[in-house]
Amino acid sequence: MKTASIVRLLRNATGTLGLAALGLLMAGGSALAAPPSSSTLAPGGFWLPQGPGPTLNGQTEGLEDGDVAGAIQTVAAHPRAAGTLYVGTVNGGVWKTTNAASQNVKWERLTDEQASNSVGALEFDPTDPAYKTLVAGIGRFSSLSSLGGARTGLLRTTDGGKTWTAIDGGGVLIEKNISGVAPRGNTLVIAVNTSTPFTFNNIGIWRSTNGGATFQQIAGGDGAATGLPGGVTYDLVGDPKRPNRLFTSVVFADLVGGVNGVYRSDDTGATWTKVSNPAMDALIVSSVTSNIEFAVGNHNNVYAAIANLGQLAGVFRSGDGGATWTAMDLPETFEGAPVGIHPGAQAALHLSLVADPTDPNIVYVGGDRQPLFNEPVGTAPFFPNSIGANSFTGRLFRGDASKPAGSQWAPLTHAGTASNSAPHSDSREMTFDSRGDLIETDDGGIYKRTNPRSASGDWFSLNGDLQITEIHSLSYDTLSNVVFAGTQDVGVPVQLLPSQTLWNSLQQGDGGDTAVDVVTTPGQSNRFTSNQNLLSFRKTFWDAGNNLLGFVLPALTVLNNGPRPVRQFVTPIALNGADPHRLVIGAANALYESLDQGANLFVVGLGVRTNGTSVDPIAYGAAGNPDALYVGATDRVFRRTAPAPAAVALVPTFPGMGSGRTVNDIVLDPDDASRVFVTNTAAVYMSADAGATWTNLTGNLPSFSPSTFRSLTYAPTPLGDALVLGTQTGIFYATEATGFSVWRRLGNGLPTVAVFDLAYDRGDDLLVAGTLGRGAWKLLNISTAVLGGGL
User: Fold this and answer.
1) What single-letter DSSP state applies at residue 560?
2) Does the CA dihedral 705-706-711-715 come out positive or negative?
3) Count of Cβ atoms closer than 10 Å to residue 270 Cβ
């Protein structure tokens, strides 16, 4: 019996999770991160993975344990081995399983040590009869503002993922966001949907005929050279029976003298022909088209799905390889009014399409989420909706082009299943394994649909032990010694036991910023969590055994006739470091302070919009001055040192002001409120006099980490103080003994992913890190391992 099923039985028997029994069950824990291949080890020992891997009771329906993991952009199924799947995750790299057909799916991480783990495309090379050659395209496709790792080009394996070769075309592919790949031996064709800088000379279709040593832009200008004009290319797919045939689309071609539309190549991307008809062309409009996806079947059948303004606008079928096209109906249900597959208007990211492998008339399409009944008319919307959905789960349909217009689509979830089942929302890609099961990836992970051609099948999770959660905010409860987090896509998960990878969902949806108070109520911790836009903001109560005791919803009543908070998607919050009765909230229109943990609010920064794009640059209260308050707004710092509820004021001496670099994090020395540290995207600063003067501490950091600096924490360890910095490419530390300006990499075995939050536990002398794509990690004995060496 798989672990998650045993957990479910324990819960049913005890009414809770039965943590003691679960502790025995999970005594082995998860495997530690493998040592790096280099013989030179960084100080600090090894980072220990904390999960989630997976999170139980996530936003699914009818699935055993309802587990979720995180966003997966793309999936490649082995054409012969049904149990072998490869996934390219949004920010967690490439993973492989060989037992996807079992009840206990195990995944192997393949690219942790590569320069980037943000994957936009992944395909088998059909010219390799052993199916061991795959190419991954690096690109940023996170639902969290498209944040992610460096855009470094391609990764190629010829041994099934054991080793990888980085390909950048001599630097040509750097900073290109790769949305599609078509490897054909030494010929590599890629699609680029955006780039930095965004120019027509950097996007579109590119091609190499020498294994990636050099690349030539195929899409350019009016298309006179190759038949393919310049513009944005959202997708690139190949014909499974004709390896030389490729399909793509071009949008914004009209801005460079070309024609928007669907294009086909019959010579592996060297030349192209426009094949879309007038009905398709009428929908492909530069000002509104946000995505176009393709699916090519085994019978010379091709499907194209066109999305405009976040909504599916058209589905077209060709039975002759793209020579002619016929429009299909649009999939929808009646919820008091017709509703399509994108109630959340997220078709730019969440649109999947696959052709049935055996029936040339059947196609499957995925959108974003389920609507409530009456949602489109806005009068008392409710669940269940017309097909039986009781949550904002996946919205997928089966289409049959052989049926009359008006009857071509049927739901692939809920009423279209045997057990009213559905995967997580926000579909990204679909494929078929060699057994005929439909494999779907989305913002919750990877799922399987059995018997997809009828309503007799169901959805099942294949997430297994994947650890790919995008954590943007993280807190460490020092009472129960567990981690909880605010995540993109998979809510607010809570670690079940210290140092274990199995977590449970506290709140579904997108998670907000987190904070924890273990001081005000002896023997009890108070955890602050929310969903996106500070919805369901709550304070939950927990005992030392990590058992939930109850919760309250702070009123957030604004006093003194102040304006109500305009909530940000991720609204920063911070508890006071000296007096956790006090709380700060960084809204879009003002900064708010509470002296009673959110019951009542004072405006202390009218017009100050705290940076909230996955960062929480607030430092609030320390020894010597509980009123000390610093916040980051764009590239500026605001400060207050006077008693509450005095307002914050601009710090005119901050050296990063005017640089255009976002202030990402701010921390105070907990033992000295006059000492403050700030990081923006490329520098670290310190003030020892409450912001009057500043010192640049960046020192030798560029040689270690040329990428974005994300997070800071201050570690007053028993052997001395240290400043810890999380970046796009690792975690670094500098000690007080060096003036906080000599930096070294901290710990070993951490994947190359962005570190969005850090928490140091003074009592246990450990550090916890939250990453955007590889979950949470823990490093033990900081003072001994790092500062014991005298640095």
Assistant:
1) T
2) positive
3) 17
Question: From CA 36, how far away is CA 747, in angstroms rounded?
Answer: 10
Burial string for 468-496 (b: 16+ CB within 10 Å, else e) reads bbbbbbbbbbbbbbbbbbbbbbbbbbbbb
Query: What pLDDT was estimated at residue 334?
Result: 97
Structure tokens at 650: 């601009």
Which token pair is 523?
A: 């023997």
Give the rounded distance of the alpha carbon of 349 from its chain centre: 12
H and E: helices and strands count for the chain? 5, 60
Please give the pLDDT value at position 186: 98
pTM: 0.94
Helical H runs in 251-324? Answer: 278-283
DSSP state of 442: E
Give residue 766's pLDDT.
96
The DSSP H or E segment spanning 666 is: strand 663-669
Report mean pLDDT in 10-residue bins for the chain, 791 residues.
36 33 30 40 89 98 96 97 96 98 94 97 98 98 96 98 98 98 98 97 98 97 97 98 98 98 98 98 98 98 98 98 98 97 98 98 98 93 98 98 97 98 98 97 98 98 98 98 98 97 97 97 97 97 98 97 96 97 98 97 98 91 97 98 96 97 97 97 96 96 72 94 94 94 94 97 96 97 74 45
Count the Cβ atoms, other than its own, within 10 Å of residue 171: 9
Type of residue at 704 = F
Query: Exposed, middle or buried, 167 (CB in 10 Å: 0-12/13-18/19+)?
Result: buried
Q: Rounded to whole angstroms, what are the CA distances from 506 to 2, 19, 514?
A: 22, 16, 12
Which residues are CB-contacts of 295 (< 8 A; sequence separation ≥ 6)? 237, 302, 303, 353, 354, 355, 363
Nearest to 17 by CA among 58, 49, 57, 53: 57
Q: Residue 96 is inside which H or E element, if any?
A: strand 94-97
Query: What's the CA gap between 539 and 552, in Å, rounded?
Result: 5
Is 190 within 8 Å of 184 (Cβ atoms)? no
Radius of gyration, alpha carbons of the chain: 26
Structure tokens at 134: 């795959």
Question: What order do you get walking across the sheet with 261-265 strand by strand?
Answer: 236-239, 242-250, 261-265, 273-274
Instruction: Say how far apart CA 503 and CA 494 lie, in whole Å.
Output: 5
Rounded CA-CA distance 64/657 in Å is 52
Which residues, at least 6 apart from 216, have a Cβ–Cβ distance to it below 8 Å? 206, 207, 208
Q: Are strands 427-432 and 649-650 parallel, antiparallel or unpaired?
A: unpaired
H, E, C per residue of 39-59: CCCCCCCECEEEECCCEECCC
- 285 CB contacts (<8 Å, ≥6 apart)? 260, 308
Q: How far apart are CA 66 and CA 208, in angstroms?
A: 43
